[in-house]
Amino acid sequence: MNIRLAKNSGFCFGVKRAIKLAEETAQNYGQAITIGPIIHNPQMVQQLANVGIKAIDDIDSILQGPVIIRSHGIPQESLQKLIEKQFQIIDATCPDVAKAHKFAKLADKENYKIFIVGDPWHPEIVALKSYIKSEAVIWRDGEQLPDKFYGKAAIICQTTQNSHSLEKLTGYLLPKCKELRIFNTICNTTHVRQEASLDLAKVSDIMIVIGGKNSANTLMLTKLCSEYTTTKHIETVDEIDYNWFYTEKDKKIENIGITAGASTPDGIIADIYNKIKVTVGEADSLVKTINDIPGYKEEPHEFRDSKRKQ
Length: 310
Prior knowledge:
Helix content is about 35%, strand content about 20%. By secondary structure, the protein is α/β, with parallel strands linked by helices. The protein starts with a strand and ends in a 31-residue tail after the last helix.
């Protein structure tokens, strides 16, 4: 049985930076507040809570700082409240997210009709919208758009979206405006992770996607992988099911793929790999760290849409 891990699984740069800032704040001050969970991984958020980093949604209920800005960023009005209250602010906003804010302000200032590729409920989009004074259109792949002409239009993406959605919206808007400006704010790590996961999914009997159930990039990985093979999205080892790895005739499947969202700690990935090994009766080859897990080296080939599950 092959159990392999997709390249670039686990913490991305933005998450590593946010966690490092939070841990340093805990060491220096003993406690701090984050506006909402600092990242979308319940286990990591709990781990930080254990060392004094508490997540609070209501800014008005914060009595003392320091206050850490979550990796997804916060709306401008929320930031202004914190400044007015004179809290010490530690900005853990992902640099790629902050870049999207700058592009949004620029496009709005230059009077573009702004289209945002993303999930309207996601905190990254909630924060991004606050940098746009005009009315922006939040678009999710598969939704209908108004059949109208725009003089100037601009596209900005939630950093964890996929390039196919961006291409689809671009193709739709291109003949409907005189000028179309595209800010490709999908972070490179997201793109690389998605491609590596898809390559592994194409040669796997099942994909195990590890990450928070509230994590947009993990949900996207699950969606993409499920187009090619059976896919299970889990957060912890407790969700693993023996029956996933055997056929109806109680024969082991041959290829198991593992990938993980950008907010998934390395330790959880290693624990789940070990639990799968134990579940399939191969407890003699467990790992200590994520670096010990066999990786999948994708072979060059064309993007085989014909292999998608029907």
